[in-house]
Specification:
The complex is a heterotrimer. Chain A has a single domain (48-323), classed as ABC transporter involved in vitamin B12 uptake, BtuC. Chain A is 71% helix and 1% strand. Chain A is built from 13 helices and 2 strands, in the order ααααααββααααααα. Chain A has helices at residues 18-43, 50-75, 85-100, 107-131, 136-155, 165-172, 180-198, 200-210, 212-217, 222-248, 260-269, 281-300, 305-323, and strands spanning 174-175, 178-179. In chain A, strands 1-2 form a two-stranded antiparallel sheet. Chain B is built from 20 helices and 20 strands. Chain B has a 6-stranded mixed sheet, with helices on both faces. Chain B has a 6-stranded mixed sheet with strand order 16-17-18-13-19-20, sandwiched between helices. In chain B, strands 2-1-4-5 form a 4-stranded antiparallel sheet, covered by helices on one side. Chain C has a domain at 55-147 and 157-242. Chain C has helices spanning 6-12, 15-32, 39-64, 72-86, 91-118, 123-141, 151-158, 167-183, 186-196, 198-203, 208-234, 245-255, 267-286, 291-319; strands at residues 160-161, 165-166. Chain C has a two-stranded antiparallel sheet. Chain C is globular and about 55 Å long. Chain C starts with 5 loop residues before the first helix and ends with a helix. In chain C, 54% of the residues are buried. Classes of the chains: A mainly alpha, B alpha/beta, C mainly alpha. Chains in contact: A-B, A-C, B-C. The A-B interface holds A 1, 3-5, 7, 9-10, 13, 16-18, 198-201, 203-204, 206-207, 210-211, 213-221, 277-278, 330 and B 13-14, 16, 47, 52-54, 71, 304, 306, 324-326, 328-330, 335, 337, 339, 341-350, 353, 356-358, 360-363, 365-369, 371, 393-395, 397-398, 411.
Chain lengths: 330, 514, 320
Amino acid sequence: MGNVPTNAAGQGMALGRVRNLGSRKVLIAYLLVLLIFIAGQVISPGFAAFSNIMNVLNISALLGFIALAQMLVVLSGGEGIDLSVGAMASLGAVMSSQLLNGMDGNLPLAIAVVLAAGFAIGAVSGAGIAYFKVPPLVMTLAMASVIQGIGLVYTNGQPKGMASPILKELGTGRTAGIPNLVLLWIVIAIVVAVFLVRTRAGQTLYGLGTNRLTTELSGVRTRVVTTVVYGASGAISAISGMLLLSYTGTAFLDIGASYMLPTIIAVVIGGISLAGGLGNYNGTVAGAILLTSLSSILVTLKISEGGRQIVYGVILLLLLAVYGRQKSNT
Amino acid sequence: MFLLRAKSLRKTYGGVTALRDGSLECRRGKVCGLLGANGSGKSTFSKMISGVVTPDDGEIWFDGEQVRISSPQEAKKHGIIMVHQHLSLIPELSIWENMTLGFEPEGKLGFLNDEDSRKLAERYLAKFAPELSVYAKVKDLSLAQKQFVEIAKAVAQEPKLLILDEPTAPLEQSEVEKLFAVIRELKEQGTSVIFISHRLWEIKTICDYVVVFRNGQTVGAIDFETEEKDEDVIVSMISGKELKLAKNRETADRAPKKERMLEVGGLALRKSGVPLRFDIKKGEVVGLGGLQGQGQEELLLALSGLLPTGGQVTLEGRKLKLKHPKDAVRAGIVLVPGDRHKEGLFLQHDVFLNLIYPQLAVRKAGFFLNRKKLKAEAKTVIDRLNIVPNDPGKVVQFLSGGNQQKVVVGKWLPLAPKVLLLSDPAKGVDVGAKKELYDTVRELADQGTSVLLYASDYEELTGICDRVLILFEGQIVDELMPSDYSEDRFVAASLRSKTAAGHSPIDEAWGEAN
Amino acid sequence: MKRQNFMQKFQQNGLLSIFAIFVAVVAVNAWLQPGFFTYDVFESNLASFTPLVLASMAQAVVVLAGGIDMSIGMSITLGTVIMAATMHDAPGSILLGIVLAIAATLAVGVLNGVTIGYLRLPSIISTFAVSAVCYGASLLIMPQPGGYVPSAFYETYTASIGSVLPVSLLVILVSLLVWGIFRKRKIYRYIYAVGGNEAAAYANGISTKKVKLYAFLIACIFIVLTSLVVVAQTSTGDANIGRSYTLNTIAAVVIGGISLQGGKGSVFGAVLGALIIGFISNIIFFANLSSFYQDLIKGLIIILALTLSLLPALRKKALA
């Protein structure tokens, strides 16, 4: 018993390299995307047309932004998970909408306020988790209802304002036929990849996620870092809310709610172990694209929201059964 | 004649062999002593007999037929019950609930018959601790009381074979006597007992024969009914002769070191204990000896900043505030912890990340990492410690135990530590790697690093240390210089450290008799 | 060797401090709510608290066994939606609705028990996935709120027996009685054993996976009762009706002194915890706050309760 490493990552890694496992999952994800588009084209001609592919990517980008927040938290380990990303994105959207009030001049202020509010709220969750040992899932679930409450109080139940022209152009415009949001997503993906692999902070995060005690003994103040990670997750979710607004133009109170479960699934599909410490953002990107494609073909097949929820739940259970089993007693 | 016969049991955990070849024959109505150093495989072996661990290979014969014991339930069905070293009690339940857990008497329609349960519990508890109420919750008991409840519970199930894994560790002298009285009673009823202990006088008092384990193998047996109870023979069987570290005997002849590196004062490990006071010179290797669990590991954790305690720690004349490992690491005090999987490594990551991590942690590396430079540094460490394979991209969990331990030591080298704390670094490490590991430690010491080493193995301590502090119940009870390094002194100071602590009449009696 | 009397047991379970909080919130509530001590107000308060009390008992059983049930809200929802969708005034349809709801709840319980006990998935996230499945199924059955619930349900639920014993109280008493029966069986002790120290329970020959499955199945009894009460109370089916129960039951369980680590606390504590949350909601309501503030304050109180209830354990750890 005891020191048998039964972590999910241990399986199928005969080559003994971390990156192979992640990249294999990513490859499988993209293959599935390809299959979905082929099947979609057969069922409903035009599904694989350039414009529809761009549409799917555009929506994937929105999921991808929020999933980045989820990924950081999951990566930081300690059963890390953030159930407040959806509510936080909603709050970010309604705040942006009211702060901007349709005017570009308000953009710097709106960005600053949204980021700060997101970070502050996220950091409160993080502090509860790091210092008071509240399980992340419970803490962030409770925080989600608080954030919802803040949204209600802030808007008095009725969000006002709208996106400014520049923001709208970002959300709905295209450059060389490619949606601006997708281009932004590519840039962010590169920045995140560099951050995770090439910076001290990124590599520290991997250690934190893999083994907290080793990290602490190496001289990292793990509780401070954990608090900051949840803060960052809040900030990213909130600013993703602004991007949701850029796409829709106006905000409503639970605009981000439906993204919560998909972010978790995207992260897991992308090879991030729920045990923490393994994976990269390119996997999450693949997960977001796969999930959006799947959702898109389900819509084409006229499968309702209820059916999609069941599909999501079953996929998550299957992923857990394959990657997330705990060690047995013997 | 034999109740149990286990032949060539084997168990490996992910490349680490816990038990290579464990064999034992258990006679009816006799007490069998199971001996061996920590990590010799005796615990794994007894867990196999009691169904907690399933062997990879080997046969078990019980009561004349071959059996497969794949769960504790099955072991119980055969009449084999083990009292675990790490208590198997449920803290939130009462004594009587615990004592009948898993075999509750049931009445009509499968409803519990709690009255019977309580009576049963009372009857057996009275043998050990008549002063305890069976209604008390287990979490409120002292360690010794918990141990009694545990043993009483096992006895209440009237086993054919009772396995006691270090049952006396938390017990006082008089309590040990009580336990022995019960064991004798069981013997008379024909019950066989396997008794695991580190204390030689207990073994000699209660056992009819002993079987010795070393490095995952059965190495021999002594029948006390026909052979002499010779402590020296037993000790040499336990420690083994083939494991002779290259003893740097010249260390003792070197010029005595004078420059003080680390001074510790007023550090109390246990609430009631007298605070510790000692120092370590520059380039000195100081050992921490004594029985297991006497505060050696706590001391190392305190110095590493993980377990903040009240004492004063001075490094090269500078007072340190050790509130967090970061304070210790930045000051140059680094720890090689006892459980490398849980405390020392990122198992799922490559050697490279593990080796550079402390530099990230103390922000020695810049924000943007110069991977080329770091890779070169990692390579230097790999070559210096001879980590096999010499590939920084290899994932650590696929290395052997010895090479994993080298990574744990190696990750500190780029920080050029002033004080190296080592907690049983050779546990589960093969002989060759062990030697390389200690050669590295010696080399570091020669370059001026001070070393504080805890090892459960006496040979390891004497092989490398300039002096050894013996700990007992969180206090330094003896200090041995190389001229004192004899088995007798060690055994006296640690195996029978109750004598040293001065409150063990039986031990003193034994000392006189020998 | 004396048997412990009731008070000692009470104190040992940490129920005393919970009871003190309970008395405090009741006092504040009585001060704010007009006619608090009249029978009608008592009855209507009780009727609104009952669903959370029952659901918290279900959550308590799972948490005591060392797990957590994130699907509880959606499992309740599924039961209510099935009933609202199948029932007419005909007795046969009512029976069918109840039987189908029980079957669905049990299926969810088995799914949770098997994934967590036998497949060893982490309960916190796998029940969350099951929650999505339940929500999806509820949406499929009832994309829009609606359905039909015979008025007999509402009438029965708000009736009182002999005009002294409200039916809602009767339901709670029956649930406690059901739990009382389990207390006299092995499974009760095994739930505490597995939750308290799984490895030790295993070493004692207890089949830990079976115990986890049974814990989820026992919870099903209370979940079905909750669904029945919710249907009677709201008289409609709505796929979002149970959403808040997941968080609120966890809060009730924690406030009621049950450790989220498992194995510690009592189901009775969870009942008190649920009542405390009910009274707090009442207080917020009668304090004349804007309804927008209600969720916010309740969320904050829950977070406060969570952090405070985990403090003693931390302090103990720091001393050790």
